[in-house]
């Protein structure tokens, strides 16, 4: 839903009088496919990572207040560090809305194989018009960021000659999801792997979606 505030009306009028030059600037891009990584997930003492996705409102139209339109789905695919898809889901993001997903509690908590908690891997996101991650339909409008949990120590020699394998203290960094090229084959593979995984997993691996406007 596009919300046109009253304070914006004078600005819009001035812009139109000046010939609409502000709208002539074609900026941004048409990206629909994004990738990032997660690290030190489900690790004792480490904070949780978060994937945040917004709908920039590009697909919405000006409409009456309270009429929702322009919504998209974030088709999310979570891989482990052995390049295996472990979970997938499609989470709704309304126009100008915010979605926050916990790496520990949502993206890696319910996975196909049940082989235990995974600690590192890759997250892929498709900005989609489809409500199913098994049949993603690319459509522009989503942008995302992810926090990364960085260990400051790992494998430090001790005074006794041993090796301290503990990690921490921890740094948390945040980066924008990297734009990537989405080929027809990659899109097909993501949908197929998700569908196959959910089928053989008997429903496991469908990562839950946080309600909008709920953050961590």
Describe the structure using short key phrases.
216 residues, alpha+beta, 5-stranded antiparallel sheet, 3 helices, 11 strands
Low-confidence stretches: 6-24
Taken from the alpha-carbon principal axes, the silhouette is globular
* Total number of domains: 1
* Alpha plus pi helix count: 3
Oligomer: single chain
H and E order: HEEEEEHEEEEEEH
Helical percentage = 10-25%
Distance between the termini: 25 Å
Biggest β-sheet description: 5 strands, antiparallel
Could you tell me the strand content as a percent range? 25-35%
Summed over residues and divided by their number, the pLDDT gives a mean of 83
Gyration radius from CA atoms, angstroms? 21 Å
Provide the structure class: alpha+beta
The largest sheet has its strands arranged as: 4-3-6-1-11
* Number of E-state strands: 11
Structure description:
With 216 residues, this protein is an alpha+beta fold. The chain has one domain. It is built from three helices and eleven strands, in the order H-E-E-E-E-E-H-E-E-E-E-E-E-H. The longest helix has 17 residues.
């Amino acid at each position: 839903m596009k919300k046109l505030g009253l304070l914006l009306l004078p600005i819009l009028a001035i812009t139109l009088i000046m010939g609409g030059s502000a709208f002539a600037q074609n900026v941004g891009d048409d990206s629909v496919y994004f990738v990032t990584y997660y690290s030190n997930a489900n690790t004792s003492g480490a904070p949780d990572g978060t994937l945040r996705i917004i709908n920039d409102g590009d697909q919405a139209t000006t409409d009456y207040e309270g009429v929702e339109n322009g919504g998209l789905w974030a088709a999310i695919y979570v891989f482990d560090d052995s390049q295996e898809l472990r979970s997938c889901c499609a989470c709704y993001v309304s126009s100008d809305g915010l979605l926050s997903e916990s790496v520990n509690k949502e993206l890696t908590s319910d996975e196909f194989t049940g082989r235990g908690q995974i600690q590192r891997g890759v997250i892929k996101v498709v900005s989609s018009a489809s409500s199913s991650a098994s049949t993603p339909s690319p459509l522009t409008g989503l942008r995302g960021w992810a926090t990364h949990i960085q260990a400051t120590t790992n494998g430090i020699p001790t005074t006794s000659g041993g090796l301290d394998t503990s990690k921490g203290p921890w740094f948390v960094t945040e980066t924008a999801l990297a734009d990537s090229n989405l080929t027809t084959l990659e899109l097909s593979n993501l949908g197929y792997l998700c569908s196959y995984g959910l089928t053989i997993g008997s429903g496991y691996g469908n990562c839950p979606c946080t309600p909008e406007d709920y953050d961590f």
